Amino acid sequence: MNALADQKLGAADIAALIRREISKGSLQLHDRLPPERVLSETYGAARGTIRKALTHLEKEGFVETRAGSGTYVVHKPDETSTNAIRNATPLELMDTRFALEPHICRLAVLHGRHADFDRMEDLCNRMEECLDDPVAFSEADTDFHRALAECTRNGLLIWILDQIANVRSEDDWTRMRHLTLDSRTIGIYNVQHRQILNAVRTREPERAANIMKEHLETARLSLTRASET
Amino acid sequence: MNALADQKLGAADIAALIRREISKGSLQLHDRLPPERVLSETYGAARGTIRKALTHLEKEGFVETRAGSGTYVVHKPDETSTNAIRNATPLELMDTRFALEPHICRLAVLHGRHADFDRMEDLCNRMEECLDDPVAFSEADTDFHRALAECTRNGLLIWILDQIANVRSEDDWTRMRHLTLDSRTIGIYNVQHRQILNAVRTREPERAANIMKEHLETARLSLTRASET
DNA sequence: AGGCTCTGGTATATTATTGGTTCAAAATCG
DNA sequence: CGATTTTGAACCAATAATATACCAGAGCCT
């Protein structure tokens, strides 16, 4: 997700990737990492580069390496990214968004300011340039929903939405989600985003909430449609 | 990505964007930023401009740059996100519950089972024995709302509600909350809890949601009433 | 025990990449 | 207009990355 797709990976990048695997729990305590020569292939980097990454991780205490044997994980997974949030299914996530986002619309009407709306306008524009770029659209889409949450001035709500966004970004079904994003679907979303923004701007809480429900319903439909294929 | 059609970005704008990426968590501790030459392309600015932005960020302590290597995040761990939950105000919390719990009622109607309802019934009984014991009541009350969330079978929602419950327990205003809990108020809550349980049992989603809203409204009132004294 | 293979550890010469610097032209803004 | 910022380009020095070869310990099998 870091900016560019297939950029060449440096030692620091690889260290970051592995560090995240460990924090996330995909690599658990005492697991052995693949041999350096294999990692070198999977990450498309020379062995020396992998080596530097591992040395770095060892100094940080994430990993321990035993000559002739392998390198092993020595770190408990990060507490903050708990199982509940990692194992959330797409449907659980949709239900949660159904709970939160319509009400966020209402609160945004109450507490949103002009600067917020201008920012959301920018994001709408950006999304409308992304009809054929699902990845860029997704990014802007996430930002839009976060900007909406920021309107509420409610740190707790924003935090919760961020957690949810993390679920969305780290997942296999992010890929699946991108598949459902043909230019027609993106077009529909764009219209709905505009409508939401307008309703918030004109201070119509229930209308904004209802359009948001509609928006989420659209998203849920394309989700179930995708999982049937 | 998004560069081409965007308006022109100055050094300050770019610094702000990157700062945002760091605060949001997309760029974590020890991550290496893309090379200046790449950033210059993605942000549609000259390298010198990027350079200024980075120099600025370095002075602010967000980033550290090593010649020949790259520029790295030194994560000033973001206070707002980790403490968002601890610093939540009572009103923020009420708004969040207003978003979540009515919809949780609807989902509970969909997915709740007899065993769940029996458990909630027990908790209602327990609460009704607590007319004069605010602390014990609060405990059972928290359990009741969690049991309701468990009906949804949605791990993500349950997790979120648990986080919120943690906010509630750790706070000074827990004490304040106990003050508002005279036996009359507890009595009202008990009636509302019963009504919610019944509506969920008889599978009336909107009725359950509406009573929950009423319930939260009652709680919010006694909260504001308490903070005025 | 002996032999084989897989593992990390080390060394090195070469190439590629990155930040650091400078400068003059162009663009922007008050 | 004048002041400031941005641009684009070139070049430098520091560092990282690659490719290759060889070593030594661990583990497994006969």
Which value, in Å, is the CA radius of gyration of chain A?
21 Å
Main β-sheet description of chain A: 2 strands, antiparallel
Tell me which oligomeric state these chains represent: homodimer
Structural class based on helices, strands and sheet pairing of chain A? mainly alpha
Stretches of chain A where pLDDT is under 50 for at least 5 consecutive residues are 1-5
> Helical element count of chain A?
11
Q: Shape of chain A, please? A: elongated
What is the name of the CATH superfamily of the largest domain in chain A?
Answer: GntR ligand-binding domain-like
CATH architecture of the largest domain in chain A: Up-down Bundle
- CATH level 1 name of the largest domain in chain A: Mainly Alpha
Distance between the termini of chain A: 26 Å
**And the CATH topology of the largest domain in chain A?**
Four Helix Bundle (Hemerythrin (Met), subunit A)
Q: Any descriptors?
A:
two-stranded antiparallel sheet; Arc Repressor Mutant, subunit A; 2 domains; DNA binding (chains A, B); mainly alpha; homodimer; WH-like_DNA-bd_sf (chains A, B); Four Helix Bundle (Hemerythrin (Met), subunit A); elongated; DNA-binding
Write up what this structure looks like.
Chains A, B: It holds the Pfam family GntR. Chains A, B: Residues 8-76 form the HTH gntR-type domain. 2 copies of one chain form a homodimer. Chain A has helices spanning 11-24, 36-42, 47-60, 83-86, 90-111, 114-128, 134-151, 155-169, 172-180, 183-201, 205-228; strands at 63-66, 70-73. Chain A has 11 helices and 2 strands. Chain A has 2 domains: 11-73, Winged helix-like DNA-binding domain superfamily/Winged helix DNA-binding domain (Arc Repressor Mutant, subunit A, Orthogonal Bundle); 86-227, Four Helix Bundle (Hemerythrin (Met), subunit A). In chain A, β1 (63-66) and β2 (70-73) form a beta hairpin. In chain A, α1 packs across α3, α6 (114-128) packs antiparallel against α10 and α10 runs antiparallel to α11. Chain A is mainly alpha-helical and 229 residues long. A two-stranded antiparallel ribbon of chain A has the order 1-2. At the A-B interface, α1, α5 and α8 of A face α5 and α8 of B.
